[in-house]
Protein: 3-alpha-hydroxysteroid dehydrogenase
Organism: Thauera humireducens
Amino acid sequence: MTVTVVTGSASGIGAAVCKQLAKAGHRVIGIDRQNADIVADLSTAAGRKAAVEAALAACDGVLDGLVCCAGLGPTAPSSSVIVGVNYFGMTELVEGLEDALARGSKPAVVLIGSVASVHPGMDKLPMVSAMLAGDEAGALAQADAMAMPQAAYAGSKYAVTVFARRKAVPLGARGIRINVVAPGAVETPLLDASRADPRYGEAIRNFVAPIGRNSAPDEIANVVSFLQSEQASFVHGTVVFVDGGMDGMSRSDRF
Ligand code: NAD
């Protein structure tokens, strides 16, 4: 039986992914802050280490899939915690579980990015350079110094996308596929919190996808399920926008 670890399993996109993968016959090991097979705080190095150790024990060191959904939006308590969960909470899980994935059958990884990752200028931020250099203390300090949670969010999603693309060569050599799914607006508690926030609510209400509505979590999970399946056996190192046309609208001439 295919064994897949899913982070952020307790809510929103992660919960929808767990449901679909279980229905497709995977054994799913969920990780979240609460209501999960493995309860862990992915915002800290100690929490991530504990999550990796518990996941390795639960799968006996052999893993076929990893889907990293756990993430925080711009309404999180601080910019640094956004970077901690959205970047290091994904990349350290990939690195910690890489050997187990290499022992798995047709292993595949999906990281949940965001259409926000294409926001111009993210590649120039020192916070992003620190993330990509693996300098967690530096990245967290830069994020809090900027005090722009929306930049911490977009920057963390840009960095995690770059991380995945850079991993295409080393993971491909080990037979592990890795891809990023970049959602637009998805009806989850994360979006509800942003919409209710006076800083972001109006922009979120005004930024409507060309398709004329937001997504349901299952519409994102459908694409994750495909990427984790053998039908996607030659899809590797790429970014799939599942955004109702937002990226096409905002950068039609760049792809
Ligand atoms: P959600 O709030 O419903 O789910 C996020 C999950 O992550 C929650 O279960 C939460 O407990 C978990 N989590 C947060 N911090 C954690 C921590 N420190 N340790 C362990 N688990 C933690 O939100 P969602 O919309 O389903 O978000 C899933 C992913 O999708 C996130 O990475 C988010 O950035 C991304 N995303 C969401 C949208 C959207 O509009 N909802 C758009 C683009 C990308």
